[in-house]
Amino acid sequence: MKGKRNKGKEEKIVKQPEARQVFKGMYFYFYPNNTINEVRRVRIIKAIEFGAEWVKDWQEGITHVVVSKGHTYPHLLKFLKMPSLPIDIVVVNDDFIPGCIEYRGLMSMETLKDIHQVEGHKTNMAPPDIPSSSPDTRRSLQIKPSKKQMQPSQTPSVTEQSSLEVAHALRAADERSLAQLPTGAADPLFELMKEAKELQELPIDTEDEDSNAAISPIEDDSDESSPKKGSKASASRDGNSWQDNFQCMHKNTGMGGSDNPNARTIQVLQQMCEYYNKMQDQWRTIAYRKAIASLRKETKKISTRKEARNLPYVGERLAAKIEEIFFTDRLRRLDNAQQEPTDAVLQMFMKIYGVGFSQASKWVNQGYRSLEDLSARAKLTENQRIGIRHFEDFNSRIPRKEVEQHGKIVRETLQAMDPAFEITIMGSYRRGMKDSGDIDLIITKKNASLQDIRSIVITTLVPKLSAFGFLKAGLATMYNDSGSKWHGASVLPGSKVWRRIDLLLVPWNEIGAAMLYFTGNDIFNRSIRLLASKKGMRLNQRGLYKDVSRGQNRQKLTEGTLVESRSERKIFQILGVPWRDPVHRIC
Ligand code: DCP
Ligand code: CA
Locate the BRCT domain: which residues (predicted)? Predict the structure, then answer.
């Protein structure tokens, strides 16, 4: 059956391109089912333009009844002379039509839910069945909708029903690769502004004095039950103690638990989090991490906005996103972010070694759009040139075996000079990852001071390895402020691939704290540092300190007294954190 227009009024109907047809495969019966009312007339046209079939006479196969404002469900039943409608027919008011069309622009499902309820209609519990991949299979109205999309455990409450209906409709639209919408099409700036406002309400951790970045995803400074500052470090108490909330207290394998019922949602939110992290958007990065941490702890599937809203650290906006991911298996904002061309350029520039957000955005604003552009026309430092020339190398992961080979060359060269030197491969390698972004090597020697180690590394090791052609000049000139790091690039004999390598010079008496810090991951580190801070202590890559006095905003007022720095295990013990093998520090 084909949709028909009211014959009385000649109306030009321009069908939207298939990809935009949010109502394709749906059969709408309007009540009243005519175009006498101007508002209804326009809505019927819109429905058809966006893919719906308008059914003129009541019959089997109708998927939606669209009730005009001012009319009620009892009116409709009386008119149809039916005691009730089949359970699989969706009853909505006519705001449903613009709501669905505009949803992809700016309207939330929550808003839609509120606006498309029909007075007197409480009994319709089932969402519509929307054909998934092939709407054409339901061309015939004789085919009864199935309930396959409805899982028993997810039976919606009456109040959630409308939201589910829209979500299912949108899911069907998604599956037909509904990429953009015509009206009010997603404006990333608008989204960002709205989001920025809402995120202001989210709780945030204190800054850690040793890190520019903000802290762990899950800790809550407002926790009344935490010990008072300056109190003695205590071992973990019962299973529900405040300390148990810290990620560092638990084995973290980075899987988020493959059996986690919210694994897919976590995965999509993680991508969004990574995106914001790359954009140096600290607020959103934290908000997403907090939400992910909440979801990781959740044992039941979170499908609706309402359920998501009940999770700690999940605000309105994030709850909407969680619902969207559940129903659509993807996140619009992520698609938009990935499709935004200047975002893509910005992200690419930020992948150049040593280039941060501000330099990258400067180049974007100056009109550069590719690495070739930069090489040919931009004023570049020598390090930036190297970063561009070896862009591919520096952005590819280094297989574990190759990391070992780089480590071996440094170890053998150094131990040939002095066998007492110890070289340990840190970072993701120590956490057992199959590949690494760069090579982090701790260099230390029993009872040696930083000066002892540095003098050998600078005067002998680096020149020697450079002479071999293993270490490359350029980045190799850089020592950090305290003179304890050397950043550079290394190339295996016979290879042309440059790898990023960091030599981390650690005095013997700080080796435990340094091992802890350079094992990471960064989130684990933030978590354990904040835990120390809550116990009135302070942890950094040089040691664990006590009697640190802090001001109102937890800023450090005194350095404190060193408690432990030699033994990684002792630091765990003093903090009351059960020992975690490096492979269990992947948060
Ligand atoms: N680190 C940290 N906070 C940061 C950066 C680093 O605590 N902001 C610590 C934890 C990291 C370690 O230093 O694990 C090494 O830093 P990398 O950036 O090299 O990170 P990874 O080695 O963990 O990962 P990748 O494989 O990407 O190198
Ligand atoms: Ca690393």
Answer: 18-114
Residue 241 lies in a domain: yes
Q: Relative to the CA of 524, which ligand 1 atom is closest? A: 7
Ligand nearest to the CA of 518: 1
Torsion, Cα of 374, 379, 381, 384 (10° steps) = -10
pLDDT at 368: 95
Pocket of ligand 1, beta carbon within 6 A: 213, 427-428, 436-438, 440, 517-518, 520-522, 525
Ligand nearest to the Cα of 485, by number: 1
Residues 404, 483: one domain? Answer: yes
User: What is the 381 CA–ligand 2 centroid distance (Å)?
Assistant: 24
Do residues 364 and 443 both lie within one domain?
no
Q: Identify whether residues 69 and 152 lie together within a single domain.
A: yes
497 CA from centroid of ligand 1 (Å): 21
Nearest CA residue ID for atom 14, ligand 1: 520
Distances (CA, A) of 70 to 33, 47, 93, 94, 262: 14, 20, 10, 11, 41
- Among all bound ligands, the one having the nearest atom to the CA of 406 is 2
Measured from the Cα of 212, ligand 1's closest atom is: 8
How many domains does the chain contain in total? 5
The fraction of the chain above a pLDDT of 70, given in percent, is 68
User: What number of residues does the chain have?
Assistant: 587
In a domain, 61, yes or no: yes
Note whether residue 344 is domain-resident.
Answer: no
59-103 confidence digits (pLDDT tens): 888 888 999 888 888 889 988 988 888 877 888 887 778 767 755
Same domain? 480 vs 501: yes
Please give the residue range of the domain that contains residue 481.
398-506
Q: What is the pLDDT of residues 262-275, one digit of tens each?
A: 998 998 898 888 87
Q: Which residue has the higher pLDDT, 398 or 301?
A: 398
The answer on pLDDT for 584 being more than 80 is yes
Contacts of 554 by beta carbon, 8 Å cutoff, 6+ apart: 206, 207, 221, 533
CA of 128 to the centre of ligand 2 (A): 50
Task: Give a yes or no: residue 77 inside a domain.
Answer: yes
Residue of 46, 113, 321, 445 marked catalytic: 321
Same domain assignment for residues 306 and 203: yes
Question: What is the per-residue pLDDT for 158?
Answer: 28
Nearest to 16 by CA among 8, 6, 24: 24
321 is catalytic: yes
